[in-house]
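Instructor's aside before we start: the two examples that follow are unrelated to each other. I chose them only because their records fit on one page, so don't look for a connection. First example below.
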Amino acid sequence: MKNSISTLIIIFLSYFVYSQSKTGCQSGNCENGKGVYVFNTGDKYEGEFVNSHLNGFGKYTDANGNVYTGDFKDDKFNGKGMFNRTDGTKYIGEFINGKRNGLGTQWYSETYKEKGKWENDRYIDKVEFEDFIISESYDFCIEFNKILSASVNNFAEIKGITVSEYIADSYLCKIKLKELSTVEINDKEGYSGSYFKGEKVEGIKKFEELNKLILKCVEKSCCTYKNTLVNGVTEKKYEFSPVTYISSCNSKIMTVKIYVICKIQGLESNVILQITNP
């Protein structure tokens, strides 16, 4: 009756390349950040990467439709996670190196389960514990609004080390938005980061996707914005212009603008987020 879910995912990730075959890195930062990657097997991973490997929180969907959501380390299920199979069975609990290890609950049906201690995918003994909640602690909008708030002070609180010893006015950002790469803060131009680089048609989709994401985030900020589309041929741009702000907000926020930009060159595109200095 037991249905082993030993997957022991060992994925050899080398260099991610986006191609028209729709495999490889589809969006985001698949090296050190948060992105979406499709394998030539048809498997798909959406989540965090470190050194081009699956590390952090993510969702892995194999070609058969089985889904793991939870913690990864070095391309394997490691930590707390939930594995849902297409046959309706599921396991919620702890994993080590892709196998059920530690405390967890295996559901074989809506009424039958094994809850307790597991070792190398085998149920060992019944143990009572509080059920695990599988969720990602990271929230894009919370981190984005920290950056937006810092803009009123020339981003001083979130400036990291300089991008280069030869460039005096450009800094790395201390706050990391996992969806963005090549992020820097420039004393003249403000904050900028790349959301997507790749094929033009996909880039336009990602341009709209990022705009919707920022729209949700500014609803949680202390300022209301007017969103205007400038629809050019080589550059498409959504401009967020401040309209009003609440009393607890720094009045300088009224001089800060947000831009979602899609730069188009031939068949390639680059989607960028920018936040200006006051």
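Example two begins here.
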Amino acid sequence: MPSEAVQINPFETAKRQVDIVCDLIGINGGIREMLKYPKRELSVNFPVRMDDGSYRVFSGYRVQYNMARGPTKGGIRYHPNVTLDEVRALAAWMTWKCAVVNLPYGGAKGGVICDPKHMSPGELERLTRRYASEIAPLIGPEMDIPAPDVYTDSQTMAWFMDTYSMLKGYSVPGVITGKPISLGGSEGRGEATGRGCAYVIREAAPHAKVKVKGGTVAVQGFGNAGSVVAKILAEEQGAKIVAVSDSRGGVHSPAGLDIPALEAHKAKTGSVVGFAGTKPVTNEELLELEVDILIPAALENQITPKNADRIRAKIVAEAANGPTTPDADQVLYEKGITVLPDVLANAGGVTVSYFEWAQDIQGFFWTLKEVNDRLERVMVSSYAGVQAEAQKRKVHNRTAAYVVAISRVVDAIRRRGVFP
């Protein structure tokens, strides 16, 4: 990944994005300050017994950014580069994301500094259970509902839900989303981020004068979101996926990639690298390929002023959180590139997480078709609202999405007032 990913403070980026929108719509004083700081943040340091019998102390965080519109919602990531400022930024982005798609949530995020690639399933289970117990006083189905994120999955969520339930003395499926279906998970949750992104790309394509069918696509980050959006664009919308990458490198084939075969290759080898019939491509090179649609689905700060002028895609659809810096946004806008910002493009995950939570609360579950139909309605409606705001104000889509989101949060803050 480009070195900028560790040089740019993501929370400073998040606050700058708030300032840009507050300047535009005239939000000043105390409310602007409230939008730029988390409501609550918890840092924890906890021991975990390793497989060799030794103990290691891990550090983790949970940040609840804003509760004006409802309980907070946001994922938990396991990564060696997790920082408190990164978690703060992600919690802020979750706040705006939930508001963009009009969910009754605020934003939160959590993270543990660890390298899950070098930990056994048993060690990850013990880490998860201890982290869950440490943050348990601040979470719950009416307060803060975590979910999967980078290097966490449905099994992680099952351990988390079980730990919280044991502390309560009864099962609480609504405390977390992204669970296995057998524990109250929702149909369609696993592919929701990628599917929601594909819906937004489909809606945006006519405005960007792009034909998805037959169009070329490059995907940086072939994890859950990236692989799903690639598969849906190829199989349901007729796009040609010409390049994908993961943390070890990438592969490129102008003739198009066989996505199911590539998924099988990655499952077998642990990476897309070395897939038959392709040429190697770095993560940096992939971003600059001449394609119709570029999907950054890896980590933040991938498109910066240093490489923005070399981006040649017509649409940049952010399946990752924060992949484009504010300065790069302006460069892409001036080049006529349509950016579908993270707070809109990857909001399918939190939308179906909301569906899962609602199903858990009711104890009444929906079919896969019902979930996908509802997701499509939310994403289509949300894109239309952002597009209308962008045209009205003559700004790029990220600013328009933030205008929609921040206006909704500010309205909630003003109507609630400040206690006491």
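The longest helix spans residues 368-393.
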